[in-house]
UniProtKB/TrEMBL annotation, chain A:
Keywords: 2Fe-2S, Iron, Iron-sulfur, Metal-binding, Nitrate assimilation, Oxidoreductase. GO terms for biological process: nitrate assimilation. This is Nitrite reductase small subunit NirD. Residues 4-98 form the Rieske domain. It comes from the Bacteria. It holds the Pfam family Rieske. InterPro entries: Rieske-like_NirD (IPR012748), Rieske_2Fe-2S (IPR017941), Rieske_2Fe-2S_sf (IPR036922). GO terms for molecular function: 2 iron, 2 sulfur cluster binding; metal ion binding; nitrite reductase [NAD(P)H] activity. The lineage of its organism: Bacteria, Pseudomonadati, Pseudomonadota, Alphaproteobacteria, Rhodobacterales.
Automatic annotation (TrEMBL), chain B:
GO terms for molecular function: 2 iron, 2 sulfur cluster binding; 4 iron, 4 sulfur cluster binding; flavin adenine dinucleotide binding; heme binding; metal ion binding; NADP binding; nitrite reductase activity. It comes from Ruegeria sp. PrR005. It comes from the Bacteria. Residues 314-381 form the NADH-rubredoxin oxidoreductase C-terminal domain. Keywords: 2Fe-2S, 4Fe-4S, FAD, Flavoprotein, Heme, Iron, Iron-sulfur, Metal-binding, Nitrate assimilation, Oxidoreductase. Binds 1 [4Fe-4S] cluster per subunit. This is NAD(P)/FAD-dependent oxidoreductase. Coiled coil: none annotated. Residues 629-764 form the Nitrite/sulphite reductase 4Fe-4S domain.
Length: 109, 809
């Protein structure tokens, strides 16, 4: 893994999300708690709705277009047979770090 | 020949080190102990009970003169070490040097002082040692204190001084107290307990300046201009490892003095323990790991094998009556699951965080008796698979106890108002039930509760259930969502009755089963709170659907539409030119005239929004709220100005209405229209409020619809003056804001409460005035252009980072 410093945790509103453009597409960073961030594809598995614009609750997000709900731990859509990609992310000293290998299209399997 | 051991700092960790050394091998070392404080080792944790008066200083001394004498410890108290010469192996104190064979640095940490203007004034202190404690002990009756920092230390300081009678205000930067250890729900309960002790808590408050007079502190000024007068200001905003000595001596340091698993620094003859060290990227602020470090250091000094391992930690707050416990980790991880238990009647909140088959974190408030059991499960990594279902009930669980969905109603005091229309309180209803009213009709007949608008029916039924038990079969009402057992109407009423003014308050007091709601209940609760408490509650953008959060309608391809407001449908050549320019500049693919007499720019990219708004703002255009559950448009016809049939100035009235109502949030969208005569060109009779002008005045109709349902308005009132027409409209909108279920358009709400009920309210002169005043109060906050506000911070609308550029390099 190669951790890339993205931004301060506080740049993402609590129970909100922000988008990072990457070679594998737009990734949303969801802040589910004071010190908790998840990274997943910004594109809904249903019709591509922008998940970063959804409502973040617990460790889930609801798509703003047709209310599909995704578990951010796994990317699994609740009650649907679909999932979105998730990516390794961690917080260190108030900064959000994203795994550079996982979001690089040359190395992503 | 004894080795010479010098210890710098007589703190919590070095005390434990000396004990372990003399217990294991009293003859190994000849110890010299320096301490900057003019005293030996005492229990620093217990300063808080000393402050509150529950203990005396004498009771918290851990090592007295006799102890040092018995064990031949040379004490150099009140003497600061100024230098370490590693080459000569000499430590220099203020009163002279001493040679060492082995050296231990245990200098602890120093409080962080925010460099606010005025931080060096007399009367600005931190909370670290006995001197600070004594300063605070002088604060009693009639003294005012401000504490900056709502963490463990700040709150213990605040509670201690409040116990002595001082008027204490805690100023905290974050949205809830102790955010490192607690989640919002527990933070809410803690705040409530502290407020119960007379402490004022100001959250999300940013300190700007400390104001002084004659060199003494006088007040704290916040960045919103508020001044909090004080005689003493305590800063408790964090600690920083005290590494100056180690660093000057050339030891490897980061945030703390680097040590290995044996507590040895980069110099093999120098060890370090306590809050001044950094071990495997971690620094420490609680005693449990420091005691471990002290024991390991003792073993290392004695030439034995030992290694320090970091373990999970638990936190308690030493404030009587604030029973909280937090342990382990509820941050940053994959594959986690929450179990939440709330008992509003006892003010209890418990949350467990589970990963796989392990418990990894716990937060509790109100009842922490199972804290150490949970902590044990975390520390030992016990598999909880067999007890997952009942885990939250603790080790004593014997089956049976289930969270009672009725507890929120059960705990209401008997004077709590249940029926807002008829002012009937719980006690009256319970009496009526006890006197034989065993069905809803009888309760209604006897007390009038739920006999008017009917929205409190659910609560009355729950009361009957609580009072009559199994004798009453409660109809199943539809709860808001899976997060709770209450209907929208119940929640609305309870928010008013119990004066719940924040989302965590609602979640806790009404027994929410999830940590922070879901996409169904959050927007509803957010609206109820801002409608009922416009001054106390701050709108939460994260509880809004994207359209309202971004102030633009999201389109099916993820782009947005932009609709400027055109008051009463009137525009000018300049405005049209600005709109055309914006359409060119931002490559707007579609420009459309809407059904509400506005111009819609469709297909604007999310990141362009703040800029197009700024451009439109410059031409005097503001947001048309075409996305909001709020006032959308007031459609008008040209009326007496141009039309030969016009009876009144319908355009003028429409503009006035729009200017009064814009910006307000409502349960669902609200559309108005004003037609200048019964020919009704503005199609007023299918609007939420539609006014038709006639020779004798104004016919105000309400509850029209032209969506999935089509409905003609019903006549609310006929009035003679324009002023009255405006008053009636505002009163109607406010009544709807106060009572309707979220996402019910007025016609749906009217079908539930009845037009007569609404008319009675609006005809009552006092009530009408109250409604108008309440609306105006709310508008003092919400009648503003969201575009102007958001255009000022465009960064929130763009991506956080762009890694595609870096990858291309
Ligand atoms: C009010 C209060 C309440 C607390 N409550 C809790 C609690 O409930 N639970 C918990 O786990 N932790 C609590 N803590 C934290 C806990 O007290 C600390 O983690 C612990 O005291 C740190 O121990 P230490 O040995 O590293 O440093 P300290 O105990 O701070 O000792 C360091 C000593 O070194 C001296 N010193 C520094 N520089 C020099 C120098 N150059 N020369 C000579 N001497 C020097 C200092 O004067 C000080 O006496 C609390 C702290 C405070 C202030
Ligand atoms: C000189 C007289 C009149 C003038 C100046 C006039 C002007 C207008 C204007 C400006 C509109 C657009 C309203 C708007 O949406 O903003 C309009 C719409 C309309 N007018 Fe008239 N009007 C006149 C007479 C009438 C009469 C006599 C009738 C019916 C008997 C009538 C029926 C309508 C209707 C139904 C609409 C709505 C059309 C629609 O938008 O679907 N008008 N009129
Ligand atoms: S509603 Fe009446 S006054 Fe208004 S434009 Fe139509 S005809 Fe004229
Ligand atoms: S009528 Fe239907 S398709 Fe047309 S804009 Fe409204 S919601 Fe969309
Ligand atoms: S695109 Fe996300 S639910 Fe339809």
């Amino acid at each position: 893994m190669s951790w890339i410093d993205i931004a301060a945790v506080d740049d993402i509103p609590e129970r909100g999300a922000r988008v990072v453009k990457t070679p594998v597409g737009c990734i949303a960073l969801f802040r589910t708690g004071a010190e908790e961030v998840f990274a997943a594809s910004n594109s809904c598995a249903h019709k591509g709705g922008p998940l970063a614009d959804g409502i973040v609750h617990g460790q889930k997000v609801t798509c703003p277009l047709h209310n599909w709900v995704f578990d951010l731990n796994t990317g699994q859509a609740v009650g649907e047979d679909a999932r979105i990609a998730t990516y390794p992310v961690r917080i260190e000293a108030g900064r959000v770090l994203l795994d550079g290998m996982a979001v690089d299209d040359r190395s992503a399997a | 020949m004894k080795q010479k051991l010098v210890i710098i700092g007589a703190g919590m960790s070095s005390g434990r080190l000396i004990e372990t050394l003399v217990d294991t091998n009293p003859d190994a070392f000849d110890i010299t102990l320096f301490n900057a404080e003019p005293r030996g080792n005492y229990n620093r944790l217990m300063l808080s009970p000393v402050l509150s008066g529950e203990k005396t200083y004498e009771e918290i001394v851990t090592h007295d003169d006799a102890f040092y004498a018995t064990h031949g410890v040379t004490c150099r108290f009140g003497e600061k070490v100024t230098e370490i010469d590693r080459a000569a192996k000499v430590v220099t104190g203020e009163n002279g040097p001493v040679r060492y064979d082995k050296l231990v640095i245990g200098t602890g940490s120093e409080p962080v002082i925010i460099p606010l203007p005025g931080h060096d004034l007399e009367g600005v202190i931190a909370y670290r040692d006995l001197e600070d404690t004594q300063r605070m002990m002088a604060m009693g009756e009639g003294r005012r204190v401000v504490v900056i920092g709502g963490g463990l230390l700040g709150l213990e300081a605040a509670a201690g001084m409040a116990a002595r009678g001082a008027a204490v205000t805690v100023v905290h930067l974050m949205g809830h107290l102790m955010e490192r250890q607690l989640d919002e729900a527990a933070g809410y309960l803690l705040k409530k307990s502290l407020e119960g002790k007379g402490i004022t808590v100001r959250l999300s408050a940013n300190s700007k300046e400390i104001v002084g007079e004659n060199g003494r502190v006088k007040a704290l000024r916040l960045d919103d201009g508020t001044e909090l007068p004080c005689d003493l200001l305590v800063m408790a905003v964090g600690i920083r490892p005290n590494i100056a000595l180690g660093k000057a001596a050339g030891l490897a340091v980061g945030r703390g003095i680097h040590v290995d698993d044996q507590m040895v620094t980069s110099d093999p003859d120098i060890l370090s323990i306590g809050e001044c060290v950094e071990h495997r990227d971690a620094i420490f602020g609680l005693v449990a790991p420091l005691y471990e470090q002290a024991k390991v250091a003792a073993q290392t000094l004695l030439g034995r094998e030992a290694a320090f391992v970091q373990k999970s930690l638990s936190t308690k707050l030493k404030v009587t009556g604030c029973d909280l416990f937090s342990a382990g980790d509820f941050a940053d991880g994959e594959g986690r699951e929450d179990i939440v238990f709330r008992d509003p009647s006892r003010g209890v909140y418990k949350r467990l965080v589970i990963e796989g088959d392990r418990l990894i974190g716990v937060v509790m408030y109100g009842d922490t008796s199972d804290g150490s059991w949970f902590f044990g499960l975390i520390r030992d990594g016990t598999s909880i698979d067999d007890m997952r279902e009942t885990l939250i009930f603790g080790p004593a669980f014997q089956g049976g106890t289930q969270l009672d969905p009725l507890s929120a109603v059960a705990v209401l005091p008997s004077e709590a108002e249940i029926c807002g229309c008829n002012g009937v309180c719980k006690g009256t209803i319970v009496e009526a039930i006890a006197a034989g009213a065993t069905d809803l009709g009888a309760v209604r007949a006897r007390t009038k509760a739920s006999a008017s608008c009917g929205t409190c029916t659910g609560l009355v039924e729950q009361l009957m259930q609580v009072t009559l038990g199994d004798d009453f079969q409660m109809p199943t009402a539809q709860p808001i969502c899976g997060c709770c057992d209450l209907t929208h109407e119940d929640v609305r009423r309870l928010i008013k009755t119990k004066e719940l003014k924040s989302q965590p308050a609602v979640w806790q007091e009404l027994g929410w089963k999830t940590v922070n709601g879901c996409h169904v209940c959050r927007p509803a609760v957010n609206f109820y709170l801002l409608a009922d408490w416009p001054l106390d509650y701050v709108d939460d953008p994260q509880s809004r659907f994207v359209n309202e959060r971004k102030h633009a309608n999201i389109q099916k391809d993820g782009t947005f539409s932009v609709v400027p407001r055109m008051w009463g449908g009137i525009t000018t050549a300049d405005e049209l030119r600005a709109i055309a320019d914006a359409a060119d500049k931002y490559n707007v693919p579609t420009v459309k005239v809407t059904g509400g007499q506005r111009i819609d720019l469709l297909g604007v990219k999310g990141e362009d929004l703040p800029y197009i708004w700024a451009d439109l703002n410059r031409a005097g255009l503001v947001s048309g709220h075409a996305y909001s559950k709020g006032l959308r448009t007031v459609k008008t016809c040209v009326g007496t100005d141009h039309c030969r049939f016009g009876t009144q100035d319908s355009t003028g009235l429409g503009i006035k209405l729009e200017q009064a109502l814009w910006g307000s949030w409502t349960p669902h969208k609200v559309k108005l229209a004003v037609s200048g005569c019964p020919r009704n060109c503005a199609e007023a009779t299918c609007k939420d409020v539609g006014i038709v002008c006639v020779d004798s005045g104004y016919q105000v109709g309400v509850g029209g619809a032209a969506g999935m349902d089509v409905k003609e308005t019903e006549r609310l009132l006929d009035v003679t003056t324009e002023g009255e027409a405006i008053a009636v409209t505002i009163a109607f909108v406010q009544l709807y804001r106060e009572n309707a279920k979220y996402l019910d358009r007025p016609y749906k709400w009217l079908a539930k409460v009845g037009l007569d009920w609404v008319r009675d309210h609006i005809m009552d002169a006092n009530e009408r005035q109250r409604l108008i005043d309440a609306f105006e109060l709310s508008q003092s906050i919400y009648r503003k252009d969201p575009w102007a506000e958001h255009a000022a911070r465009p960064r929130a609308y763009t991506h956080l980072a762009d890694l595609t550029l870096e990858a291309a390099e």
